[in-house]
Request: fold
Amino acid sequence: MTRIDLPNALWVKSSYSSDGGNCVEFAPEFTATHGLVPVRDSKDPQGPALLFTETAFAAFVTAVKSGRFAMG
Reply:
């Protein structure tokens, strides 16, 4: 099992995050180096991160853009 060091990752806030605190951040540079996309809650930067494969993350982003997870 490979350990991935995330404390020094450059996190980017999703453009789909609202100003109301529903903020998701991801660390895109890990895709190039590890083939994985770490995702975390920006309100809890010291908390856990989820790791997705490139394919799974791309499918998630496509679903969000299509409105599949729209609330309301």
